[in-house]
Amino acid sequence: MMLNYGQVTISLPSVERPGHLWEEGHLRQGFAWSDGLASFGVPEHAETCRMDVRLVSDHEVDPRCISSVCVPFDAREGRALIGSVFGAEEVELPPGRYQLIFDVMPGEGTWSLEEDGQSISGEYSYLITIGFRPSAAPGFAILKAGGAVQSETVLSTRADHA
């Protein structure tokens, strides 16, 4: 997936404008959050990333992980849109409350596509894993700082929509 403005957004389909106004604290912690919408920063030069989205029952930070953060997500609509500011893919989720875990890993593999009769290809900048772990009491946490996550602690749990 091509990333716009160095961020990945995860939102409920009913969110009209899936984007946040990022303040300094959001930039340092690597995410901005509001009910129904989470925006995550990715390291610089993240142009083409592979995303792995799944339901998980537990989570351990992989030693190769560049950064890892988690936020609450209420999938009350049974669906979520995952993508970037100008485009997203819809995924189905069992309705419920989740701990949304966003991990950035080093890139793995190559991509290719046909455009105007020409083949273009390259290497993935990063592997982004997005885990939805069912939780009765989801919260906010910085699990590993690095890359776009410069703070060891959560600085802000709310952001305004763009």
- CATH architecture identity: Sandwich
Shape: globular
> What is the CATH H-level superfamily?
Competence, DNA-entry nuclease inhibitor, ComJ
Write down the secondary-structure element order.
Answer: EEHEEEEEEEEEEEE
CATH domain class name: Mainly Beta
Query: How far apart, in Å, are the first and last alpha carbons?
Result: 22 Å
Major beta sheet summary: 5 strands, antiparallel
| CATH fold description | Substrate Binding Domain Of DNAk, Chain A, domain 1
What is the number of beta strands? Answer: 14
Query: Kindly state the mean pLDDT as a whole number?
Result: 90
Tally the structural domains.
1
- What percent of residues adopt helix (DSSP H or I)? under 10%
Radius of gyration: 15 Å
Counting helices, strands and paired strands, the structural category is mainly beta
Biggest β-sheet: strands ordered side by side in the sheet: 3-4-1-7-8
Count of helical stretches = 1
Low-confidence stretches: none
Strand content: over 45%
Oligomer: single chain
